[in-house]
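Service request form, structural biology core

Requester: graduate student, group of Dr. S.
Request type: structure prediction, single chain
Budget code: on file
Notes: please return the result as structure tokens.

Sequence provided:
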Amino acid sequence: MVPEMVEAYARWWGVPVVCENTADCWVLRGAHNILRIVRQDSALIPQQISMVPVLCGEQQCSLPAPVFPVPALGDWNAIAQGDLLTFLAGQLWRAEELQESLRENARIGEGAGFLGDRYGFFDRPVVDLWMRAIFEYLQNNRLDVPQGWHGQAPRFWMSFDIDCLRKWKRLGVVKHFAKLPWALLRGQVKPWAHLAHEAMRSHFPHLDPWYTLPKMQAALQAFPGLRATFFWLGYHRDHKARRYDVRHPAYARWLSEFAKAGHQNGLHGSPLHATHLAALTLEKKRLEALSKQAITLHRQHYLRIEPGTTFRFLERMGIRFDSTMAFNNRTGFRCGSCIPLPWWDIREARMMNLVELPLCVGDWTLHDPENFDATKSLPLVQQMADWAKLAGGILSIDFHELYFAADYPGHADFFTQMIATLQQRGFKSWVPEESL
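Core staff response, request fulfilled:
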């Protein structure tokens, strides 16, 4: 997978680089230099890590690598003594699949891979930064922006997981009204009456307090040219609760509404179906029937996957772009990357017809949506954006429609502030295209 990784990055950057596999080393040939890196398969999951200073553009970075003598800045002969490329490939294409003790972390999206939070590995797109530094050495030239981009502005990708369009479901309404005697005894009539009013309105989905799609549409319209991707549940429940049935007319019409506005629709696969090809396929077909479009984009609900298996299912279903690789407990660059690249099937040793762009920023990991401080959250988004720009990648952001509800005051305003800040910093809207 190492040569495929190198050549995939070279295509993204638009530079002529070839990777050859010899008996004892990787040979990288660029326009001006050749780099021979010692090959040692055990470096995929090294026992020890060292921090190595390298230059990316004009910025000096300290990046993790397999242990070898720390070289002077720019001493690529010393760097070549460790199997850097196998290490990078292992992180990008999920070393957790090869180590049983780590598989559960991959299944539930926890930021505790074999490097965990050590060495700041997940705070930066480490794999991307290393590849940029290598290419700049091989080309003997600074790479300002990937030449493969359509334009030279840094990019951000805005996506929305449509998880919960109804606050009040039938069982919840029954339970609430059953609590009336207890509420009367405790003198809680006013808050009970407020919730009762909400519950009665829920018979009409578009009146439900968590029906926020019109608010989201208005927020997007405030930024002309901003295109977004919406991931819809194709099944009405997950492993925790009943959610919504996308076939309800109040919801289904929005697939075409967003498509007409230039946005994209994708599948938010149920965690119940991560290991069931037929069930996932049915979810996809349901969305296609409603949208009258082929569904080729995907993110797994709750980021739940079965390492290896789920992605093979997605490929067989005709999904061409996925963004499930993310963290449920922190912001960060899962897989050390923010560049969309074809996924590697470790078991079958082949590049898949499925592009992966790891998710960097989620509203639920950025802060507590019920109690957040924009003065702390916004600088974190800016910091992530700066790393993505330096790495030549795309800042991927995910918000949920739920937090546009009145139950989460200020969060919709924060969304507007975040997009305005990114645009002020020169970032342009990006969406996955078939050309990837």
